[in-house]
UniProtKB/TrEMBL annotation:
It comes from Aegotheles bennettii. Keywords: Membrane, Transmembrane, Transmembrane helix. Residues 77-174 form the Methyltransferase type domain. The chain crosses the membrane at residues 7-29. It comes from the Eukaryota. One of its GO terms (molecular function) is S-adenosylmethionine-dependent methyltransferase activity. InterPro entries: Methyltransf_11, SAM-dependent_MTases_sf, Thiol_S-MT. Pfam families: Methyltransf_11. The lineage of its organism: Eukaryota, Metazoa, Chordata, Craniata, Vertebrata. The keyword Transmembrane helix applies. This is MET7A protein.
Length: 246
């Protein structure tokens, strides 16, 4: 009965989103989403998410200075920088390399850079999480990734790249929305929303159990916590937060 309900409600969502499915079929939606819709959407939703998760982020990034290299520099790499909503949490004087597969966030990114001049911005790279070949191996002290592993094509491949670019003893910081408990109503609605949500929101998957990928990756230490971020009327309340040490 549950599976039939999921399929029925999925079909209802497809009908409601039929214009987007049609634009996708014609090859119009993806470039429009990448250049206009998703940057606009992410800018707006980031404000809400930031308000709901600010305390958790402050606590998460509190020990970033502990991973300063022996040279006295703290080199950070952020995967999926987007609008730059994490900049306010980074320590003064740190050196930051920003990466994103989508280069169309300039307006919001520049706004957040101007607000956070305590950071030394080294470079912006157009790159996917699975392919950071422009970043030398063992060259950064910490990698940050928030609300990104839901939409990369290969979570394990991204984590391998994270381990490659981190120096020994460096840390990977994450905050990601994940699949809910399988017996919960939230998970039911995640299954219902999955295909249409992924199409509309640039490949975002709401049913990933990303904590399993982190547990299986070759980190020497993993500090991971399941939390709920109050995002009303969405299927992305369940999150994981923490950091892992190479």
């Amino acid at each position: 009965m549950t599976e039939a309900s999921v399929l029925f409600l999925r079909a209802c969502l497809v009908v409601l989103a039929m214009p987007i499915y049609l634009l996708s079929f014609l090859g119009i939606w993806e470039p429009f989403c990448k250049k206009i819709f998703f940057p606009f959407f992410l800018d707006k939703v980031s404000i809400v998410h930031q308000r709901k998760s600010k305390k958790q982020k402050q606590e998460l990034f509190r020990n970033l200075p502990d991973f300063t290299s022996p040279s006295g520099e703290l080199r950070l790499l952020e995967i999926g920088t987007g609008c730059g909503t994490n900049f306010q949490f980074y320590p003064p004087g740190c050196k930051l390399t920003c990466t994103d597969i989508n280069p169309n966030f300039q307006q919001s990114l520049l706004k957040n850079m101007s607000k956070n001049q305590h950071i030394h911005y080294e470079q912006f790279l157009v790159a996917s999480g699975e392919d950071l070949h422009q970043v030398p191996s063992g060259s950064v002290d910490a990698v940050i990734c928030t609300l990104v592993l839901c939409s990369v094509h290969d979570v394990n491949g991204t984590l391998k790249e994270v381990l490659r670019v981190l120096r020994p003893g460096g840390a990977f910081y994450f905050l990601e929305h994940v699949a809910a408990n399988h017996s919960s109503w939230t998970y039911f609605w995640q299954q219902v929303c999955y295909p249409t949500w992924k199409l509309v929101f640039a490949g975002c998957c709401v049913t990933r159990e990303t904590w399993k990928n982190l547990e299986q990756a070759k980190f020497s230490e993993l500090k991971l916590q399941h939390i709920s971020v109050a995002l009303p009327c969405t299927p992305i309340k369940p999150h994981i937060i923490g950091y892992a040490v190479k």
